[in-house]
Amino acid sequence: MSEHWSNDDRGYRLKLWVDLTSQSSEKNISTYRLRLFLTSRGWSFSGYNCTGYIQFDDRQIPFACSAINPNSEITLIDQDGHNLWHNSEGIKTAKVSVVFNGQGGYSPNRLEIAPFYLTPPPLALASTSVEEHYDGYFGQPLTINIKRQKDNFKHKLRFGFGSVWRDIATNVDTTYTWTIPTDIINQIPSTATSGTGEIDIETYNGGNKVGSTVRVPIRIHVAPQGTSSKPTFTDIELVETNQNVKNVLGTPNVFLQILSNIQCNFKDVVGSFGASVNRYHAEIVGKNLSVDSNNGKFGLMNFVGDITISAYIIDERGIKSDIKTKTVKVLPYFSPTILFTAERVGQNASIINTRTTCKVANLNINGNQKNSITVRFSTSSDGGQTFTLNGGDADFASNQTMEALNRLASLRGDFTPKSSFVIRATISDKLSPPVSYDYPIGTEEVAISYHREGVGIGMVHNNNNYRVQVAPGDVSIEAGVYRIKNKEIQNHQITEANGTCIKYNSGDANTILKTGFYNVNNCSNMPNNDLQWWYLTVIANADTYVMQQANSFFNDKIYTRQKRGNQWSNWVALQQESTVVKKEPEWIRINGNNGLYCMYKLIDNVVHCKLIADPFTETGNCNVKFPDGFCKNFIGSLMLSAPYFTTDPRDLIMLQFNPDGYLHLLGAQKGKVLKYVFTFAI
Q1: Which residues does 385 contact at the CB level (< 8 Å), separation at least 6?
Q2: Least enclosed by CB within 10 Å: which of 59, 138, 246, 413?
Q3: Range of the domain at 645
């Protein structure tokens, strides 16, 4: 405590006591208690309004006094908690003075305690962190920066995270780089990606601790890029799920185009630091096929060659594993194809020769052929109702050679020229169901033949329930019923025989109830009761439900009406649209492989195609894919032959149309030019 006195005025004096009550190195302050007294030696006053203040460093502390007894002492101020803030070195000097303003009379005029200086003991300040908080990653380095008050100060660093408290380092100056340990990741939930802890900084001067511990919050994140925090798996196992393919190939990591369906199994999957793996991903690079589950299947692979499969996993925290890849082989595969013709030969035309071109997929793995080809011929003499194996030399089978080109052979047996036959070729391999194609063989040339059941024109009648048969058996007539390929054709006349409108003069349009195209004149119940010339189109569902459309000969006006039950509606004029020139669709290009491409355009549900290779770049098979739905009406594969763009008519290439939209070219030769035009309906 220090004591200080003022001047004397009429026996009045001020007394000031200054006491240091506390100091805080952490806050860098010293705290004082101030007590101020007024003393009297014989004088007194009452009812006065005296004021004053203590000047304490940079602030004034006011007081007031109204009375004092003679020879007494009163307390003007008694206050604790007056702080002095030290500088950065822990030093402080404060100026203190007191002023008392009286009112004269019996009170003093002015009392003063002359200015004096307080110098509290210097504070040894604790060091602080340069950053207010830290952000770091498990397994990654973090630099801690310290702001210290004296150069000789040293520091001890600790961290707390969850229930874990550990020392970081001792005897640290102003900076320290620390790798955040990964073994504390389990202190956060398995689904969380970060947690909050704290870093403690303790300041030491020599061996003595200075000030209080400074605590700085830290947010620690799971680092996706940190190797130690990634989930892991050892490998991906690629399994063939098509058992037939698996049985035939019997070779790991070798699969088939179209038929294979690869299952991707992730092996030895391990999450990191308690986090479960909840996402799987594998993809065939560049092929737009992927799986997103363990043991998922890629689906149809319409490509061949070496392919790369890339895979990774992701855990609950969203951390991605390292990517693993595997390269496997996809062999080309196509359905067995066959193209053949049959003809009668021999002196009596009773021998049938076949000329066959066929092919199956070549599945050669390391010199070992995994596929086989089998061709069997059978014949039917009853229009294809029953077939008998009859291939003879025409049959063909091999475990080494997967194709035959223009193979000439004879069927077994004697085929009378008086009967027609259906020749059936069936081709199969080890992977696809057998595919059959039929070829009709008619009788030898016959002008007319007689049978008790009917007449054959250009063929021998074979008694198949038609009175009249016309070679090659596609047209038949029975009791006024006309058939083509055993399908009844329409007999109702809708035009004149020469294709012009049916003439209808001087009648009643209400009686024209049959479907057809008419030229009417001077007819009642036409639009506007106009008896002039009209084109009349009639569509009838029954005599009681009919639609009529009338077009004037002399202008472009069109009228329509309907009969519903027995009631005709009124004629209604149709609004004429402005003439619009229909633009023919442009050619669209589809690229295949091996130099092959196709130009097509769709006109009224008919596909017009130009198949071009100018030239083929390699010898072998190739294909091109039509848009989905174009070939949906194909019941099975269709085989055609097309000439190369050469002068030799025997220079042919086989075309195979499949219902899935693929057009396969079999036996393309490098350097040859193909230009083939065809159409088909969809």
Answers
A1: none
A2: 59
A3: 588-681
